[in-house]
Design a protein that fits this description.
Layout (H helix, E strand, L loop, with lengths): L1 E5 L2 E7 L5 E5 L20 H18 L4 E7 L4 E5 L3 E2 L7 E2 L4 H11 L4 E8 L9 H6 L4 E7 L7 E7 L18
Parallel strand pairs: 8-9
Antiparallel strand pairs: 1-2, 2-3, 4-5, 4-8, 6-7, 9-10
């Protein structure tokens, strides 16, 4: 729907079906206020969070490198899960999922299942504090929650999080933006 305002009136651009495309008065009204948005889906359960943190503590002790997990969300049940897909690590402060790995598609099909979408990532920044690096910013364009943990190996971790949003209906089953929303 395309809306046009003219002298405080709102019009909708419509195909009138008779060879004309025109702007007709709309029944919509404009409400003054500050735009806002809030999350009404489920919270990431403590059990899932503990699994992620335990994986990061183990993987950092083993590799001394950043690792990541993919967050999956089921909008119908508001349930969350996390999965560590095949990834490139061992490069210090970067990690990448290996979507071309032969087991990636098999794991995705198993983890995603009916109703589940990719909905973010969690990765760690080794023993340094959490922050959004330039690499993180570029990698986190996909819809969802993107969390960075820092100070792995310490008694307390630091956390930095971002949320990437898309227009409803523009996310495909893989949790990626459709071409028209980019």
């Amino acid at each position: 729907m395309q809306l046009i305002t003219h002298k405080n009136d709102i019009y909708e651009r419509r195909d009138l079906g008779n060879g004309f495309i025109g702007d007709i008065p709309s029944s919509l009204t404009v409400k003054e206020g500050t735009p806002s948005m809030r999350w009404t889906g489920g919270r990431i359960p403590m059990e899932v969070w503990k699994q992620v943190v335990s994986f990061f503590q183990w993987s950092y002790a083993e590799t001394k490198s950043e690792t990541q997990v993919r967050l999956m969300f089921n909008p119908e049940t508001a349930a969350w899960r996390a999965h560590a897909f095949p990834q490139r690590y061992g490069t210090g402060m970067t990690t990448n999922e290996l979507s071309d790995d032969p087991s990636y598609a098999e794991q995705l099909a198993e983890v995603q299942g009916a109703g589940w979408i990719k909905f973010g990532t969690i990765h760690h920044h080794c023993a340094v504090s959490a922050f959004q690096s330039g690499t993180d910013s570029a990698d986190e364009k996909e819809m969802g929650v993107h969390i960075t943990l820092g100070n792995i190996g310490a008694d307390r971790h630091s956390i930095h999080a971002r949320v990437s949003l898309t227009i409803p209906g523009t996310l495909n089953e893989q949790g990626e933006l459709s071409s028209k929303a980019r």
